[in-house]
Amino acid sequence: MSGRGGWFRSNDSTAKTRVMMAGAFAGSLLLLTTSTVFSWPVAVGGAGLTPEEELEQAFDSPAGSCLTWTPPDGTDMRRVDCAQPHLFEVTSNVDISAEYPADAAQPDLTRWQDIAQDKCTPGATSYLGGKLDPYGKFRINALKPVDAQWRDGDRKLRCGLQRTTPSGNLVPVSGSAARQDQSNVHEPGTCLALDGQKIGDPIACDKAHAYEIVGNVDLGTAFQGEFPPDTSQVERAIELCATVTATYTGGADLAAKGLTPYPDTLKQESWDAGSRKVDCKVGAKLPDGSGLAPVTNSVRGTGPNASTAPTTSSGSVAPTTTTAGG
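Above: the chain sequence. Below: its structure as tokens.
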């Protein structure tokens, strides 16, 4: 494998970090979960640089740098301006040579996971101004030295932030994480897959899905003080989401379509980190009420006030499937 660094990637849908190997980018990228904005000390990109030189430059990027790549193995990793879509934002570079001198064996995967969580979390939290939402949109990851680098004495861990889907796939981000709201919300019109009874990755709305995001609301407008109880959040979110949902659907009668609004709520840790926004979602229940039923098509513009006709599918994917656009 070519290149300088490697990665671990994890799917962390809870505050606890699970780290797994992902891709073959010359080693391992380690994902855990940052607001000082650092100036870029060198020019973005590398005019006249070879792909290998760009890769090396990217791997040794300082805090505040944003990186992206195209193939999963990251062999074309390069620096980009953080205003452009990117997959990794560097938050700190940590030297672990005190714990691992020149003659030390390289840690195994499990130990690397522990090292990255321990070493990268403080820097990421500081990078985000001292507040990190463990349930928010960003997850910590880190580039570690590959075998050849380790043998040459490289003991630097390159820590950074990414956004991932429930399965661990990377989501491009535009703009620096240091300047963004950490609320874990989605763009209206995003549909999320239904994997058994678990919520999966974004999927085309004409495919069977669990929820369609119809908008976002700010609970901070309703609760100015301490963290509100979940029941109070649900009550207020239902009120706020009703207006958003009606606008998105054109005033559709959701109950007549077998659909139900599902507003999200925030956890204490998210509230303490400053997150206030939640998704407004539409989904369907199984006939026996035991869980979610798959939904096909978008509910956008299906109501009496819709300006355009909805797109419908030719059939259901399962007997319990609800067709939103029909």
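The radius of gyration is 22 Å.
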